[in-house]
Amino acid sequence: MDQILTKTLLLLALASPLAWAQEAPDALVKRIAEETLTSIRADKELQSGNPGKVKQLIETKLVPHFDTARMTALAMGRNWRAATPEQQSQLTEQFKTLLIRTYSNALTNYRDNTMNYKPLRSNPGDTDVVVRTEVTRPGQAPVQIDYSMEKTPEGWKAYDVIVAGVSLVTNYRDEFNDTVKSSGVDGLVKTLSDKNRGPAPK
Hints:
Elements: H1 2-21, H2 25-42, H3 44-47, H4 51-62, H5 68-76, H6 85-107, E1 114-117, E2 128-136, E3 143-152, E4 155-163, E5 166-167, H7 173-197
Antiparallel strand pairs: 1-2, 2-3, 3-4, 4-5
């Protein structure tokens, strides 16, 4: 009996980290959003837009929960398959940097917002879901923000954000296609790199 109990406890101990990693997608979105807002409200430097602190917050709090490779592939569309593995890696890194800079510019304006979380519509075996939220801003109309999420071995990760019906990643597709058509994949890598060295997106 002692051996059975010991083996059971060992299995539970080994399984626990995996169970923790598989936090429900809507619970994950709510936790990360609330933790991020709390961090901003408690830090004057974040509120004033300190670039280093905002970048650090995004990289540590948000980026680990996004599938940046899949986001880049979606933004590239059919051109993704034409890129070499090295080019795909470069594109993913540059696109991640672009998204971080875009978020950095907007994040400090979120401290007075209220997030409302809608009930998750999914089945127990689903591996691809949409988490729907609504952001309420003082004196302004609420904005619908939905997160397309997939279940991975590391837990649920977002691969697209739809703001007021507009997909974040596919919004870049025409721009990326035009650049690849005129300058090739390397041209797109250079364009993104140049953009990331310039002023932050508005």
